[in-house]
DNA sequence: ACAGTAGCCTAACGATTGTTAGGCTGCTAG
DNA sequence: CTAGCAGCCTAACAATCGTTAGGCTACTGT
């Protein structure tokens, strides 16, 4: 039996310099999927390594710790959604249109960073206490403030049902939106979700 | 220093036979809260024991294992929601009314078993594989079928927007409903949630 | 009065956790 | 050709996990 030591690569692809299959990206993708599905603490480094076809110790050549791996996943997603929100902040939009644009931005983030969104949504207690996620948390606070202002403006303009208090509606809307990150992307379209949030599931009254 | 051995009870309450403070119920409540907040696997038996003011080993006088503790929490909640669904199944309701009744039953379960609902919603992978939860899983399948039939009936009656496929709408509705179990109970009323799901957040058009 | 037991304790078990140490291989820059 | 390093390996570490063993205490029913 040969001393093994190094498993030969399966395909003819060269190292990641050629840009073919960057193992770091594989680790990011597989771990994000597992974290989202089973939870951060329930997903061990060895399970992640198995999914990537390497040994647990080898993960530490790409990320210094499990926390840093989680942070890398969430920071990516945070940068994306922050960019979208910044664009909305600068755009001259009417209250209800701004609200819809923010909903669509949130849902768009699910398309590009679905697993990250699910992790953020699911393991909130972890996110709240990780020292590597202060930036993400600070941005989240800013996002919440933008949501609050936008909802208050839409309420003041009479475009949103007056039965809601602004802050309660923000939390309700966020929970409702974030929960849709758990759906398979091809099942329900963003348009459908926006429609439900704005108009509900019922058909327009026929007899009116 | 006294040999300690047994910490004297704080209050004058007698054992649980008198029904004052049943420690088993305390364990159920505290563990449910912790499981819901941090996840099942992230919540250790020692943390649960701390929250109950006892030692980790003492938990095993009330529950044979961590799995059984989880099962006890979820089985309670399952019995409640199953009873509600059974009543709806027997009631002669029009499609849209039945759908609303099912939404309200689900939300009512959140009031009585909020943490259990959050655990079921959050740790789906765990629920799917626990050998002690076959009964709960079987009931969930039956509930899904009731949902599917009710949605199909409401669709056929033209009471639900035809843009949705029945099964996709069921999954969407479930995610939306379940996500509201994460909200503090006093923030948004069940009526508000029902209103959003049925009619959305927008105010009725003023100029029509 | 006394046996039985519910309910808690301390101490420890083996398994698994995240992580580190140290070495081998094969690519790449000079 | 060769030095260096990226990338992976095996082996092992201390800490923590769920769980068990065994004993003490205080209440119960007879």
UniProtKB/TrEMBL annotation, chains A, B:
DNA-binding region(s) in UniProt: 44-63
Alphabetized InterPro entries for the sequence: DNA-bd_HTH_TetR-type_CS, Homeodomain-like_sf, HTH-type_TetR-like_transc_reg, HTH_TetR, KstR2_TetR_C, Tet_transcr_reg_TetR-rel_C_sf
The keyword DNA-binding is annotated on this UniProt entry: yes
Transmembrane segments: none
GO molecular function, a single term: transcription cis-regulatory region binding
Pfam families per record: TetR_C_24, TetR_N
Keywords linked to the UniProt accession: DNA-binding
All residue ranges annotated as the HTH tetR-type domain in the record: 21-81
Domain of life per record: Bacteria
Protein name (record): Transcriptional regulator, TetR family
Organism for this UniProt entry: Frankia torreyi
